[in-house]
Description:
Blueprint: E1 12-16, H1 21-32, E2 36-41, H2 44-56, E3 60-65, H3 71-85, E4 90-93, E5 99-100, H4 108-118, H5 120-136, E6 138-143, H6 156-179, E7 183-190, H7 197-200, E8 202-203, E9 207-209, E10 215-216, H8 218-230, E11 235-238, H9 240-251, H10 253-267, E12 269-273, E13 298-299, H11 303-309, H12 314-335
Parallel strand pairs: 1-2, 1-4, 2-3, 4-6, 5-8, 6-7, 7-11, 10-13
Antiparallel strand pairs: 9-12
Helix pairs in contact: 1-8, 3-5, 4-6, 9-10, 9-12, 10-12, 11-12
Amino acid sequence: MHVRLKPLREQVIVITGASSGIGLTTARAAAARGAKVVLVSRDQQDLAAVADDIRAAGGAAEVVVADVADFDALRAVAMRAVERFGRIDTWVNNAGVSIYGSIADVPLDDARRLFETNYWGVVHGSLAAVPHLKVQGGALINVGSVLSDTTMPLQGHYSASKHAVKGFTDALRLELEKEGAPVSVTLVKPAAIDTPYTEHAANHLGVEPKHQPPVYEPMVVADAILACATSPRRDVKVGGAAKMFTTLETLAPRLADRFKLASSFTGQRSDEPARADDTLYAPRPGDGRERGTYPGHVMKSSAFTTASLHPVATVLGAAALGLGVALMARHTNREG
Length: 336
């Protein structure tokens, strides 16, 4: 069934995890383009600050404090959105957190809590949103990860949760399509993004974790999310690195393993002492930032993602992918 989606300026958009990182960037960008936004997270202080900024700029924003692990709380979010703005046009399940450490070192309670947020938060949000999206048609956008299609040592439980998000999203899409529901379902799969992700993650490394390059600005993801809010897409990889890693793993899985063995155990460790706090169980008020503290070069755009979202540019995406795979293979052979 063809699903027609509204222009952003006519939309009501619910965004979970809206107090920092990708969610915050997406909320600000959506409001700047005329959408009414419903901001959801556990962090009352930072949500209120975001909403004040949006309203001061002439936008419309509603704040709802909720933990995505609580299904009843997300159903209440949906009701509040409808009461305040009359409908829901797009729902973005973005809230998430990671854990760094070998699987043997991560307490099982921490792993279960991660799944409550990353997997069950998407399930809860989807089930809360879909009945409302069916009314006039709309978009459900789930934020997965490049690790929905591959994996990363020292982030095993996070990788597993994002695989689960992909499985759930793909099944839900088919069921809604079979039903003839006017709802597009999209999985967005970012590569490494310079947000407070590493600072918010629970950490068992003994030092501060860090991203492995290439790393992209959160606006690259926000632009992809908002493109999917206006034009139905099945899934979108954000960043050429996301396509590069998954293509290499599909075509040459052992080469991909060798690359990770050579780079990921050391590449995810910084020289900085580990922080004592994280956001696995509770928010960290006063930390509502879009950007993280990645010290290296942060890419402001992705030719591959632009090509994915705008098919006229597919030649650029293919060229970027081919170059990336060749460089990775050369690096791996040198390390091996």
